[in-house]
Amino acid sequence: MAKVLVIDDDPGFRKMIRIILTRMFHDVVEAQDGNEGIDRFKAERPDLVISDIVMPNKEGIQTILEIRALAPDARIIAMSGGGVSLGIGYLGAALKLGANQILSKPFRPAELTAMVEQLLPADTGQ
Amino acid sequence: MPDDMPPAFDHAHIADQWGSPADDIYWTILGIFAEEGAKLCEDARAALSGGQLQALGRTAHTMKSAAANVGALHLSRCARELEEASQAGTLRDLAPLVARVETAWAAVSERIAEGGPMAGDPTAEGSGHG
Hints:
The complex is a heterodimer of chains A (about 130) and B (about 130).
Chain A: E1 3-7, H1 11-23, E2 27-31, H2 34-44, E3 48-52, H3 60-70, E4 76-80, E5 84-85, E6 88-89, H4 90-96, E7 101-104, H5 109-119
Parallel strand pairs in A: 1-2, 1-3, 3-4, 4-7
Antiparallel strand pairs in A: 5-6
Chain B: H1 11-18, H2 24-49, H3 53-69, H4 73-88, H5 91-114
Helix pairs in contact in B: 2-3, 2-5, 3-4, 4-5
């Protein structure tokens, strides 16, 4: 069993990911923006972080950078419904700046399951 | 609703994303979206009234993804147009786009209230919940 931190301002996606990961027998911790996500990361030290990019208060790229600074070996999935800021795609930027994997919204449950299985070490699986 | 408005939900997309009949997760997040969508519309209208372009774009972005996740693709497209316009446009240009999102949301909300995406559509496959 692994502990997964889900950072997203959208309650629907948080709930969806919680159900999928709970079915995989993982523990889920939630945060609704980057500020809360950083606090949760420090307190919980999760095995995996799944973070949205476009969020209020503190957006996802900055959140990923800060988590990476706190824990260089952190496993991070960045997710977004797409979009461009200053000519750079959100997910491409996230991959360059510290995410291990990227997930485009909307995604099928099986896509998330496969990505989580790939990133988590075998001894934290179901 | 205008007669020429696209369907509120795309049944093929829902079947592709969630299976047919749809996974129970789908019905859970549809219930969340029923409340979230209304709040996002209120947030968009408030951001427009307050001249907050960044907040408007962020709200449209959230609506775009959340709507696509439940198969409300017309609403998602309207939200994407608002998101893109809010990054480059002026407030005067954005008012009609906020209104389009509100109209598309009203159609989605109405269909949810009737029982779900396939309610009342005899051509829809996998319309049963559960």
